[in-house]
Structures are given as C-alpha cells and as structure tokens.
Amino acid sequence: MATRTRRPERRENPLSRERIVGAAVELLDADGEGRLTFRALAERLATGPGAIYWHVANKSELLDAATDAVVADALAVAPATPVTPVTSAMPVTSVAPAMSAASTTTAESPRDGIRAVALALFDAIDAHPWLAAQLAAQLSRSPGQSVAPRIFESIGRQVSALEAPKSSWFTVTSALVHYILGAAGQNAANGRTLGPGADRGEFLDTTARAWEALDPDDYPFTRAVAVQIRDHDDREQFLAGIDLILNGVAAKPS
Amino acid sequence: MATRTRRPERRENPLSRERIVGAAVELLDADGEGRLTFRALAERLATGPGAIYWHVANKSELLDAATDAVVADALAVAPATPVTPVTSAMPVTSVAPAMSAASTTTAESPRDGIRAVALALFDAIDAHPWLAAQLAAQLSRSPGQSVAPRIFESIGRQVSALEAPKSSWFTVTSALVHYILGAAGQNAANGRTLGPGADRGEFLDTTARAWEALDPDDYPFTRAVAVQIRDHDDREQFLAGIDLILNGVAAKPS
DNA sequence: ACCTGAACACCGTTCAAGT
DNA sequence: ACCTGAACACCGTTCAAGT
Q: How many CB atoms within 10 Å of residue A142?
C-alpha cells in the first residue's frame, strides 16, 4: 500500500487477461468500439501491441470477453434463477410457489423477475452503449460461447413461470429479448448523441420541437407524438414496453 | 451473359452516385459490411478509390445511401400511407373508414397494415443482413437525415388507427419498431451463420439437438423450447411476435 | 513463460496532377 | 467537371528476438 510511490513495476503489475479486458472496457466506455485499438490499449497498459496477443487471440475475442464481463455483472444483480424452475412436463401455472432458497434476491413474481432482468440490462447498456450491437451479434451463437444465450435463458425461465401456454414460450421470450436489446440500444444511442455533459430536458425539448416542425403531410404521426417525448422517463417508457408485451401474452386476439 | 466479352467503356458507363451505391449494395450483400472497401468498390467499378470521393463524401454517407436505397424499395411495397390518417385531436377509433385513394395498395385494417410493413422490413433485412445494424444506428437521427425515422412514422400511422389511447402511441410504436429490427436482424444473423448453400431443416435440427444436450441445471428453459425451434417457420414466428405486441395494446394488465 | 517492437498487408481519405 | 494514383496516417496481426 504505502510502497506504491513509484509507478507500477512490471513484475508487480504483469499483463493479464483480466487487466487487458478491464482496460478494453474502459476504452470502449470512453470512446466507443471504433476507437478500441490494440495500439491504444497497449499504450494504456504501458506495453507493446504484440504483448496483448499473448493473452487474447484477437480483437473479436477481446470484444467477447469485454461483453461477458460486463453482462455477467448485470445479470448477477438481477436473479439468474427465478421463483419457479422450468418443469419440462406441463405448462406451469403461476401460482406463487413456496419461497425457494433464492441465491441472491428475494423471490418475485415472474413478471417482476422479467422487469428486474430487463432493467438490469437496460442500465448496463446505458452505461456501456457498445454492448447493444455486441449482444445482438452474439445472440445467434451457441450457448456456452457467450453470455447472450444466458440472457435468453434468464428471461425464458421467468416466461415459463407465466401463465402462458408452453407453445408460446419461444415466441414470447424472443420478443422480449429483441425488445430489450432494441430499446436499450436505442436509449444508449440517444444518450451518446446527447453527450455526457448536456442537459436532458433541454435535449428532449429540442427534439420535440423539431418533430413538431416536421411536414404535416410526411410526418403526421411523428408530429402527433412529439408531445409524448418531451417529458417521458426513459426507464419508465422502457418498462411500459415490457408490460405491453406481457399484457399480450395472455390476451386473446381481437 | 454472352455479350460480356469486353469490359465496359468509360464514356458510356460514367461513374455516378447511383452506380456507386448499387455496387456498394452488391458488395454488402455478398460479403457484409466488413468487406465493403473503397478499393474493392473501385475495382468493381473499374476506377481508382479517389474517384468515388467525387460522388460520395465518405464511407458513412455511402452506407447511408445504400440503406436508403434498399429500405425505400421495401417501404414502397408496403403502403406508406395507411387507411386512417392521423387526426391530431382525438384518439382514432378503428371503425373501418371509407376506402381512401391509397397510393399503391388496397386499403387494409391497421393491424394488417402493420403486419405488411413489418414483413416487408423482415424480408428486406433477410435479403440484406447488413441493414439491421445500419437501421438501428440511424433510428436516433432526425427525420430527413435517413430512412429510419420513416419506418417509425410508417408503423406509427397504423398504430394511431388502432383502438388505443393516444398516450400509448409512442410506446407501442417504439416497441414494434424495436421488435421488428431486433427479430429481423436476428433472423438475418442466423441465415448468415447458416450460409447460402446449407439445408435449413438440417440446420434447425442440429441447433435443436444442441439445445437439448445442454446442462439441465444451467439451461432448463432453452432445453424446454428446443422442440419449438425444430419446425418453426421464420416469418410465421416473426408475425406471432407482432401479434403478441398488438394483443397487448388493448389488454388490461393482469 | 512472457514481452518487445519492427514489419506486413491492409484501411479510409486526401490531393496534386491529369483529361 | 471528373478521374487517376501515389501518398499519409492509420489498422489488426505476426514474429523474430529478447528476458
């Protein structure tokens, strides 16, 4: 501790996969994926670009590792194991079961569980905007190759505890995951164009004004909803979309 | 075919923004965004890389132009103008109005209109997988700067003709657009990993088998829905998700 | 076992020079 | 007005050489 007067010695601070991934996440958060460079990374780690390749195979593996690290954290906050485990035989009715020995959190209704996981992902993507594209690309990988399939599993378990026919599980879970990734990614993109220092209320007001000034013939709808964007809460809006989908689960088609 | 003996003459085939964008779309479709290169593009157009910059400012403008061209086609097939125009005063009730002089297609219910636009986008993204990421990034742009806001408008108009409170329009439209882009992008990514020559049934069977072989403790849900992926139709599945959201629109929360 | 740093084969983009 | 092609400042990645 007190010996930390000199800058870190190589021996005390050797390169490691963890340090590399950590620095990568920092660069990603600060500058976005386009600016994550092996040379920039090497400089930050006080080494040469070649050294990184001893610990990481290539850039895409580095991106995967960064994604895994961040998402694993996010999913750890939300409970990975839901109230009701999937029983492979029959559609599960969502009669609240006896409290299970939940690992991290108190037991919740599946609906609240979905909200919790969704919000955890929303916040993670908000804090790390580059996550959205990364996760979307990873969803088609086989489980075990990345965290993205874990998200699918995590949402799906809660869906299986909903009172919905088993035949709808896949559709519902897919819809939820797509919505979550899409909406969270959008929010992150907005935040990015906004910039870190800017005023949110002012930004919303500006967009609302711009929407209201659109050509009535070309953009009647966008004009009509301009008011709604002016004073909406991002997370509330996001959760409203989740509820919309969940409401559709048991509803009969009109 | 048989006429393709000489290479095209310069004077008869001058460079133009249109030709460049067309060639870019071809490269994008064939090799993906990573392989769209000004040098490859120049070679395909029998010119130097510098020449392209006379017609296009930079790569991101080229990508935008390619996206615009492809999406404009897709939205032209689906009706851009819906049965019921947005009236800014009151929530519109979806009593079928008198047939309007629809520009391209016969009048439809808003629900069918949404399905049509969604399916057109699904097919476009299926044919041009690089579209998904491009559109997601463009959604946060102001209308007029890209086609993405037109998609929002196009879906939104139909939403406004649904029997839903006006206060929900923004949420519903956002949810739909996010789902459409997310699900279509996912499908395109799957098709990409599948490859052009492979057998779809065999591919689905392989994934289903892989899912069924997962650890029951870690992936109970994914295992449980493995059957459902085996013989599902992509477009049907996609539309089921749309219907799910639409069903949620008027449903009361449970 | 781990790190260095030069080198290779690329990129997007610019720009003097041509027609 | 439009095109050429060399050049600049980057990239990811490799690899002989060091410790």
A: 13
DSSP structure class, residue A100: P
Taking the CA of residue B64 and the nearest CA in chain A, the distance in Å comes to: 17
Q: Is the dihedral of CA A149, A153, A155, A159 positive or negative?
A: positive
**Residue A74 carries which DSSP code?**
H
Question: Could you give the CA distance from residue B253 to residue A154 in angstroms, rounded to a whole number?
Answer: 23
For residue B175, which phi and psi values (nearest 5 degrees)? -60, -45
The owner of tokens 């209308």 is B143
Q: Mean pLDDT, to the nearest integer, of B162-167?
A: 93
Which token pair is B122?
């699904």
Please count the residues of chain A: 254
Q: How high is the pLDDT of residue A99?
A: 40
Query: How much is the mean pLDDT over chain A?
Result: 85
pLDDT, average across residues A22-30: 97
Which residues in B lie closer than 8 A to residue A144 (C-beta atoms)?
Answer: 214
A35: which DSSP letter? G
Hits for CB < 7 Å against strand D across B residues 32-71: 46-51, 53-55
